[in-house]
Amino acid sequence: MASTAAGKQRIPKVAKVKNKAPAELQITAEQLLREAKERELELLPPPPTQKITDEEELNDYKLRKRKTFEDNIRKNRTVISNWIKYAQWEESLKEIQRARSIYERALDVDHRNVTLWLKYAEMEMKNRQINHARNIWDRAITILPRVNQFWYKYTYMEEMLGNVAGGRQVFERWMEWQPDEQAWHSYINFELRYKEIERARLVYEKFVFIHPDVKNWIKYARFEEKHAYVGHARKVFERGVEFYGEDYMDEQLFVAFAKFEEKQKEFDRVRVIYKYALDRIAKQKAQELFKNYTVFEKKFGDRRGIEDVIVSKRRFQYEEEVKANPHNYDAWFDYLRLVESDGDPDSVHEVYERAIANVPPIQEKRHWRRYIYLWINYALFEELEAKDPEKTRQVYQACLELIPHKKFTFAKLWLLYAQFEVRQKNLSLARRALGTGIGKCPKNKLFKGYIELELQLREFDRCRKLYEKYLEFSPENCTTWIKFAELETILGDVERARAIYELAIGQPRLDMPEVLWKSYIDFEIEQEEYERTRNLYRRLLQRTQHVKVWISYVQFELSVDVPERIPSCRKIYEDANRSLRNCEEKEERLIFLESWGDFETEFGTESSQDRVRKLMPERVKKRRKLQAEDGTDAGWEEYYDYIFPEDAANQPNLKLLAMAKLWKKQLCDEKEPEDDPDKETDENETES
Rounded to two decimals, what is the model's pTM? Predict the structure, then answer.
């Protein structure tokens, strides 16, 4: 930018492009690259070959060449490639001493350069300068002991020279630096090439402790096995298992150990190894172990052995599940089914005790439902499988003490305990248990179970007392009243049963009064007390005018074989028709009239049938407006309504509509339009 005299900066002008049209000749990047490539092919001719004919000319050539190398080195001493080229040129002239001097000068510049040491030592070896080469390798491994290439080259040189002791000495020096695994394997292979088994074993002993990987222990054992030292191989595996202990167990070691024993035909040892490992290694880390164990049992075991493998695998899975969530009772149930199928009572006891120890943390019945079944299954196992009644009793009692009965209870548990005591012929304990349950937390199921027990024992006086207590606890339960009355009926005490029914229908609140009345009526019919039955129907009709009651009343009268039954039924129909005129449910009234019509068709005359026919309603279609929940208009709905003639006589508006309809029909008949669609009347015109 330029600045003016006032100190303000002035922006230079930019030349405007006058012609923005594309050039006629377009050059692409591809063309440029192709041309550059083509020009590379234009190679210069090689320099002419120089021939040296005498010693003076040779010395002159050497002087020039050395000066060139020295100049390059002087320009940049750190470029090691210049030193190497210089030394290799001197080596090509058989000037070994000069080349050696150049390498030494280069090492003074960069003694940590790996390539420089390698080239230097290779030069000495090619020229059979063995001691010089040893000297260089010693210096190299002393200065750079972590460069494995030096060690490999040094040991290889000694081995090629047949100096086994020297090579071993180099390896020993190398192993003191604890190199990687491949170096140890090289040392072991070196000893094996000269049949030094004992020395190789000593190397392995150091190796497995410096690199304590499972694969190295396995290699050590296979080395012993390969050389037919079976006892040594077994000891190596055993030492490996002890070395890792139970905290760092690995399935690969046990799999290899088991396969080794399998090769030796020691099948019992194999089975013990697999079971020992499966009992101690976590499920997610033992997949390969399970697989190999299953294959082994399929090859050499029986059906029981294969089942044991599967059981062990599933046991590990369930253990992991219950450890992750101890209150997952479904997992406990699956686990218990597994151990019960295994048939070991001690393990079943242990798992049951662990399961019931996980009490639900919240005192709500929905959280306890699954948990209680653990106790029930435990008690059933002790009674049916273990055959230990005393232990079963302890399980039931411990469970009943654990449940917070003030908040909720489980009638099923009380009943199971009582039934167990009955099976043990301890009626007093069974009654005491049920009595305690009713006293602490009365429930319908408890009462029913206790009553059923006493009925089976034919203790009817106890049943009466229990029914009385039950009705004091739940007087609105119609089923209880009915069962109590049925008991008295079976015992032949009809008056007591009738008194129970009378007490029942006199209760202010009942859950199913219609069932109770029906049972009472059926009871009187069975006793052939027809007059009492009629009185019951009349009393019931004073409480309800339901159409089914009227129809049932008529059917009862028809069932009584007396001469005046038809007039009695007709009178009931007449009374029902009068009482149902105010009924809002028109469909029920229609059902009643249809029943009356069927009765007259079977037992009546033409006049009586015609009378009922006149009472039948007319079915009309109407529309009504619908409203949504928010009060907005939701459209219209069509429905059917029934207009009874007796109701129409009291509604003059309906007569007026009927006359209007008749007038319109007459008007249409006068016009007599054959194809006029207005000829048909719409039923919707009956709407007001």
Answer: 0.47
Question: What is the rounded CA–CA span in Å between residue 485 and residue 500?
Answer: 6
Burial pattern 465-488, b for ≥16 Cβ within 10 A else e, equals ebbebbbeeeeebbebbbbbbebb
DSSP states of 637-684:
EEEEEEE-HHHHTT-HHHHHHHHHHHHHHHHHHHH--SS-GGGSPPGG
Q: Is 575 helix (H, G, I), strand (E, B) or coil?
A: helix
Q: How many CB atoms lie within 10 A of CB 305?
A: 17
Write the DSSP string, 330-373. Answer: HHHHHHHHHHHHHT-HHHHHHHHHHHHT---SS--HHHHHHHHH
**Which of 132-136, 340-344, 397-401, 537-541 is modeled with the greatest confidence?**
132-136
Distance CA 158, CA 229 (A): 31
Q: Is 221 helix (H, G, I), strand (E, B) or coil?
A: helix
Tokens of 493: 């005490």
pLDDT tens figures, 15-60: 676 777 777 787 888 888 888 777 776 566 777 887 878 888 888 8
Question: Residue 192 burial (CB < 10 Å; 0-12/13-18/19+)?
Answer: middle
Quick one: how far is CA 233 from the chain centroid? 44
Instruction: Give, for 610, the enclosing helix (H) or strand (E).
Output: helix 606-615
State the residue for tokens 């390798």.
Answer: 137
Question: What percent of the chain has pLDDT above 70?
Answer: 71
Side-chain-facing half-sphere of 118: CA atoms under 13 Å: 12
Q: Are 251 and 288 in contact (CB under 8 A)?
A: yes
Whether 389 contacts 424, CB under 8 Å: yes
Listed residue (551, 550, 487, 539) closest to 513, CA to CA: 539
Distance separating alpha carbons of residues 347 and 315, to the nearest angstrom: 11
* Residue spans of alpha helices (H) in 424-546: 427-440, 444-456, 460-473, 478-490, 494-505, 513-526, 530-543
In whole angstroms, what is the distance from residue 572 CA to residue 49 CA?
145
SS3 string of 399-447?
A: HHHHCCCCCCCCHHHHHHHHHHHHHCCCHHHHHHHHHHHHHHCCCHHHH
Segments in 144-278 forming alpha helices (H): 148-160, 164-175, 181-193, 197-210, 214-226, 230-244, 251-263, 267-278
Gap between the terminal Cα atoms of the chain: 98
Q: What is the pLDDT of residue 684?
A: 39
Any idea what DSSP says for residue 566? H
Tens digits of residue pLDDT in 601-647: 667 667 676 676 766 666 667 777 777 777 777 777 776 666 666 66
Q: HEC states along 616-640?
A: CCEEEEEEEEEECCCCCEEEEEEEE
Q: Tokens 């009343």 correspond to what residue? A: 553
Identity of the residue numbered 260: F
Residues in contact with 65: Cβ distance below 8 Å, sequence separation at least 6, in sequence order? 89
**Both tokens assigned to 678:** 């207005």
Alpha-carbon distances, residue 79 vs 69, 91, 101, 606 (angstroms): 12, 19, 17, 136
